[in-house]
Amino acid sequence: MAGGHLRPEAVETLVVGGEESSKVVLALFQHLLELCPECRRIWQEESARRRSRDSSRLGPGVVERTLSRLGRQGADLERERLEAPELVRELVQAPEAEQRRLLAEDPRLRTWGVCDLLINESYQAVFDDPATAEALAELALSLAERLDPGHYGGPFLADVQALAWAYLANARRVSTDLRGAAEALRRAEALLEAGVGDPLCRAQVLSFKASLLRARRQGEQSQLLLEEVLGIYERLGDLHMVGYTLIQKAYDYRQRGMAAGAVALLKRAIGQVDPARDPRLLLCARHNLVDCMIEVERYDEAEELLAAARPDYAHFGPASWPWLLRWTEGRLAAARERFEEAEQALLEARKGFFEQGLGYDTALISLDLAAIYARRGETHRVRELVQEMVPIFRSQDVHREALAALAMFQQAALRESISLGTVLRYARYLRRAKLEPSLGFEGGS
């Protein structure tokens, strides 16, 4: 199977028969159910009715055996999903040194449901605490490799392991370990070849690969992968994940200096994202749209959208997001030349980020303040801000190019030759350098 569709070698496997036939039939059947809502409805109703009767009436053929197993496994997986939250709570509350021992010794933990929830928890943690996200993904991977292939089936477990590696790659990317992320994705893609051909699994792995390519400044390749991912979700009718992928595409556009194109994509995305399914994702889309509108000077629309989204920052975002809201309000006020209002908002945001230990963002807010002071000709205040920023950046393990750029900025400020254009140039570069560790300063100019 390739992307859920038949390949010639798969047809040959079905004709010849053998152990691999079950795998091909299962993939075909899942493909049918994913693409056809009516078939999915009939299968759910009739399989439930059939399972309530004597199972000995099922014939011995490969199709019947596979469908019967699929029905039993579906019920087992649902039970595991319901049991997982309490088991995961026990696991993550144990000391870190004990967690792997528990996975090895406690049979209650060795279920797909626990593994799936650990993967989901890694995704939820990744932007708030990348180190925790990586640790959760590593636990999920360790567990995925311990699950019983006799119970779950080898191809199914290959997909589970592929996802665990993919989410580990995502956590490593956010932590700027791009080499480690690439290795994890290589393993994920290899496991996909041994899986059941689940298009959703493939879409998730490719989505994370696109994010890694973007971090490596390979935007065109990233966009090609996202087009493939978008096609998968559109064929499956998963509008929420269509919206998620459009947000990723918009992020690529913005990183490549195409903010107007990002605005169009984000507007489409907001119409697709299901707020009940992931309210934080909808908030992210709205926040990114406000940022892009500020860049393209559509200030009235930005203020209207920000006012509508304001209550959600406290309800759905992580702890730092109320301060992110103040940062955005400050940037918007500065763009509209309401400098006193902007200064107050940025000072509050900087204090909030600093108290939460988010040093890089604290320093970036200082650059936005520096732009206000440069507009007012207050070069001594710019110099003070730069002096404060240097130790913060150095404590954040920032790459050499960013530190070199900051040193040049510091020298310009000490000579009191700083201008608004200079501040904006360095701010633009250092903001991008946070997300693109390989970005050289000339690329940010």
Name some characteristics of this structure.
single chain, 445 residues, mainly alpha, elongated
What does this structure look like?
There is one protein chain. The chain is an all-alpha fold and 445 residues long. Helices cover 80% and strands 0% of the residues. It has helices at 8-16, 20-35, 37-51, 62-93, 96-105, 112-125, 130-144, 149-152, 154-174, 178-194, 199-215, 219-236, 239-255, 259-272, 279-295, 299-316, 321-335, 339-355, 359-375, 379-395, 400-414, 420-435, 441-444. 41% of the residues are buried. Mean pLDDT is 81; it is low at 51-70.
Give a brief rundown of this model.
The protein has 445 residues and is mostly helical.
Report the average pLDDT across residues. 81
What fraction, in percent, of the residue positions are helical?
A: over 70%
Instruction: Report the radius of gyration as a whole number of Å.
Output: 25 Å
As a percent range, the share of strand residues is under 5%
Order of helices and strands: HHHHHHHHHHHHHHHHHHHHHHH
**Overall 3D form:** elongated
Query: How would you sum up the major sheet?
Result: none
What's the number of helices?
23
- Number of beta-strand segments: 0
**Distance linking N and C termini:** 46 Å
Residue runs with pLDDT of under 50 for 5 or more positions: 51-70
The secondary structure category is mainly alpha
